[in-house]
Amino acid sequence: MAGKQTYELKGVIPAIITPMDEWGKVNFNLLEKQAAYLSEAGVDGFFICGTTAEGAYLDSEEKGEIFKVVRRVTQGRQFLCAAFIRPSTIEVLKEMSALGKNEPDYVVAVTPYYLSVRQEDIMAHYRTIAKDAPAPLILYNIPANTHNPITLETILELAGEKNIVGIKDSTGDFIQFSRGVLGDSQEGFSWIQGEDYLDGPSLMVGCDGIVTGLGNARIKPYVEMYRAAQKRDWQTVLECQTRINRLYEIIRLCDNPIAAAKAAAELAGRGSRWMRQKTLSLSDEQMARVAEILQDFDEIRAE
Fold first, then answer.
1. What are phi and psi of 287, to 5 degrees?
2. CB within 8 A of 59, min separation 6: which ones?
């Protein structure tokens, strides 16, 4: 759009949580606090209404309001990626059409899910979305949720398509990811790591950025790690990754990365533990254990 600021797809991009009350209603006051915390820490962009935000469980009206809140808080300091987590091409197009007026800097879509699809179906899906997208499209590879992975060959072919500018890789497959980063990819196509355990190694092989859900708990190690990578300070990158691995213990505690991130945000006064599927929320006992882990994490850093 004429006069619209453009951003490079790189850096630290938190996948912001969606705070909710006990009955599953979005708490916009807490969303403002969480967005402000992340923005003021110096992140580069926001991943909005993705997996960590429980995007598949949000309706289009809620997504529009969430996006507006984050945009109001960030005031142009960060780029905004709007994720459309829907199971079919038609549903993505419908929601994208309804929410495109919010003027995201990037749009994001997963592969079709629920039914099994072939690679040619995935390519048709993304080509159709890219053609109608109101902003550059980011591929989102998360087969643990969609059960339909995007192969490296498909990624490289789609990277040559007009209006497809990058991929968020949440496969945990470092072999495929590093092959993509170090291979003959299209100029201007960004490789974004989506698995917290692999952030440091990915930056060391030259990826463009990281999307983190766990960073909702403590974002500073991610910002420090990315800035260190820009300076080729690999020792600091490894030290930050070690801290992130320690922070990951809150996920290992409950085996639910979204619930863990939301619990940590509640303990910091900028979020709520409640999941839209209420039974997935952490118990008081689990919350107490998360608090212990975070206290140890903060004390070690303070030494």
1. -60, -40
2. none
- Per-residue pLDDT, 2: 41
Could you tell me what percent of the chain has a pLDDT over 70? Answer: 97
Q: Per DSSP, what are the bridge partners of residue 11? A: 209
Catalytic residue list contains 33: no
Name every residue whose Cβ is closer than 8 Å to that of residue 255 and which is 6 or more positions away in sequence.
none
CB 59 within 8 A of CB 67: no
Instruction: Kindly state whether residue 78 falls inside one of the protein's structural domains.
Output: yes
Q: How far apart are CA 205 and CA 193, in angstroms?
A: 11
Mean predicted lDDT score pLDDT of the chain: 96
Catalytic residue chosen out of the listed positions 37, 113, 126, 140: 140
Q: Is residue 247 part of a domain?
A: yes
Give the chain's domain count: 1
For residue 84, give its domain range.
11-302
Tokens, residue 144? 């643990």
The secondary element (H helix, E strand) that includes residue 264 is helix 257-267
The CA distance from 263 to 280, in Å, is 11
CATH number at residue 226: 3.20.20.70
Contacts of 82 (CB under 8 A, 6+ apart): 48, 49, 63, 67, 99, 102, 104, 106, 107, 108, 135
More confident residue, 255 or 150: 150
> How far does Cα 59 stand from its chain's mean position?
18
* Residue 140 annotated to the active site: yes
Residue 160's SS3 state is: coil
Annotated catalytic residue within 168, 222, 226, 262:
168
